[in-house]
Specification:
heterodimer, A: 163 residues, mainly alpha, 6 helices, B: 138 residues, alpha+beta, Glutaredoxin
């Protein structure tokens, strides 16, 4: 099956992941549930606008100054949006748990988001994207995209994937 | 030390332990990749070149490869001259080779010693200083 891929800047996605990781770790160290809730909010806004939540830092600060080079690949943006939305749900659940005093559950959920963001940022594997592609196999409405050719579902596109 | 400071210190320690565990898992994955590369060395050459080899997986549309990785490799190549062999592999043209070596993304570089043993793997961009340091420790 052929499908049209779009240009996706993976540097923007990576910046988003690095901010999610850093801010959540800081929130944990300084016991600041409000900071975790803020991260959840930014991810939620990003999901609504269909952009990486902290992508604005990359777009307006890091990219213009050349601190991070663009890494534009032919890819499907939808799985990445879905992954961010999943992260937002976990972050929101974690933040709510923290505000109700369920510290272990709350921080557990937030560390889960940190772990998955780190796997994506450093290992190139997007678990949320893999879930998206897995759901697309069941022809669920809204899950229509297939992984780029030659790319394992969830992995960053590489060889033979951009054609 | 008051209770608040103690709490921050404890949480910092816990964060370090969690991140350390994550790093350990990442290290284990890299070790697995190196083991795979060790058994794949002879897919590149019939006989060993008897000098360190840098195997560089790239693709023509890989922006960080062009912007950072290629200049870094050029730099160490000119620095080390004949004492280093660089093998560049276009993963588009040789997808099977990339698969055999377990390459998940580009750029990926492997540093192989003169005995043909894969000693280091760098997932993503590796700066010239890092590659040089890895080659010098062979």
């Amino acid at each position: 099956m052929t499908q049209t891929l779009q240009k996706v800047d993976h540097s923007a996605l990576k910046t988003n992941q690095l901010f999610i990781i850093s801010l959540n770790v800081l929130a944990f160290i300084f016991n600041l549930p409000i900071l975790a809730a803020l991260v959840a909010l930014v991810m939620g806004i990003g999901s609504a606008l269909k952009i990486p939540g902290f992508g604005f830092v990359y777009k307006y600060l890091l990219k213009p100054r050349g601190w991070i080079k663009p890494d534009v690949l032919n890819d499907n943006p939808e799985p990445h949006r879905f992954a961010q939305f999943l992260g937002f749900l976990f972050m929101t659940a974690g933040s709510i748990a923290l505000f109700f005093g369920a510290s272990a559950l709350g921080w557990g959920l937030i560390w889960l988001v940190v772990a998955l963001a780190a796997l994506n940022a450093f290992g190139g594997f997007c678990v949320g994207c893999a879930v998206y592609y897995w759901l697309s196999r069941f022809n669920l409405p809204g899950f229509s995209k297939q992984p780029p050719a030659g790319t394992f579902p969830g992995m960053k596109p590489r060889m033979g994937a951009s054609q | 030390m008051n209770a608040e400071t103690t709490s921050v210190v404890l949480r910092f320690g816990l964060a370090v332990v969690i991140i350390g565990l994550g790093t350990f898992v990442y290290w284990l994955i890299n070790q697995r990749l190196l083991m795979r590369a060790r058994s794949s060395v002879f897919t590149l050459f019939n006989e060993l070149p008897n000098k360190p080899v840098l195997v560089y997986f790239t693709t023509p549309d890989c922006a960080p490869c062009k912007a950072v990785q290629r200049p870094a490799i050029d730099r160490i190549s000119s620095l080390l001259g004949e004492t280093l062999e660089v093998i560049e592999i276009n993963a588009y043209e040789q997808p099977e080779l990339a698969k055999t070596w377990g390459v998940m993304s580009v750029p990926t570089t492997f540093v192989i010693d003169e005995r043909g043993e894969a000693r280091y793997v760098n997932n993503g961009v590796a700066r010239a200083e890092k590659l040089l340091e890895q080659i010098q420790t062979l």
